Amino acid sequence: MDEFNLIDAFFARHQSRRRDVVIGIGDDGAVVQPAAEHELVIATDTMVEGVHFDSTTPPRALGHKIAAVNISDLAAMGAEPSWLTLALTLPRVDRDWLEEFSAGLFEIADYYHCALVGGDTTRGPLTLTVTAQGQLPKGKAISRGKAKPGDWIYVSGDLGDAGLGLAVSQQRVEVASRHLKRVYDKLHYPMPRVALGQALRGIASACIDVSDGLLADLGQILKQSNCAAQVQIDKLPLSLALTETLEAEDALRYALTSGDDYELCFTLPEQHRGQLETRIAHTAIKPVCIGQVVGGDKGKIRLRDGADEWQFAAAVQPGYNHFNDND
């Protein structure tokens, strides 16, 4: 099977239902028509075998996740996902693998009404790259750099479960059978908070998706906003899978530092808290307030347990970094 037959067999056959795709797969480039008075948000992410996943990871999960992590970036900026391109590097053509991978990719793309409009295929070490484009009304993008002292800090859901799923898959931790599906799904099949991201337009002062760990990602908001924060560890949303599997400090370490949760972390001025409640009343998402932005050292996060200062018994890395020799 050559490159063009591969594209036809597994990707071009899936026809877009979006009317704004003028020219899709099969030409030198895609042509799309953004909505009037809208801006584009563009995000790119790469997953490499041996770095982000191993050979035991199901190909359907890889197809889902490489789309999901990009859609999550769009969600963090308040955008509506619209179009994807895929660059796929394969060591060989494996029809069964491609069938499963493309099924996972299109399942989540269809769920968010997002069209695959082009890309590239090459031979080499297994590498997956997706570029996602989304749309939002002009001037409504949510950035990381506008948080202010007094803003409240929220997260959209439980933290640490994906990290626990990774530890289980690497046989570093055992969980009860009743928790296995949850932690594996959180690791392999994350669901971006698209509806919440759009609800935050015009009311959130800053937002980021939690891909590298809460401390690391919240730290990005604080550095770009020239602020500090207090985070209440007693307010962190933790699942039963996490708290029934790990000792208390280990559970907190997973929640604060492990990546791949793809929940949204956002800051909200006091005067917009009621609007948030109103905008998400029809959804199942229940963001949790975990602390507050304060003045002080740029990027500094102080942990508190109730009214008391709290710190880990041993030093921890705040999150994942590709170029940190300790990771």
From TrEMBL:
Q: Where does Mg(2+) 5 bind?
A: D212
Amino-acid positions noted as binding Mg(2+) 2 in the UniProt annotation, renumbered to this chain: D45, D73
UniProt KW Transferase keyword = yes
**Residue sites binding ATP per the record:** G119, D120, R144, S211
Recorded name of the encoding gene: thiL
Write the protein's name: Thiamine-monophosphate kinase
Set out the biological process GO terms recorded for this chain's protein. thiamine biosynthetic process; thiamine diphosphate biosynthetic process
What is the scientific name of the source organism? Answer: Idiomarina tyrosinivorans
- State the source organism's domain of life: Bacteria
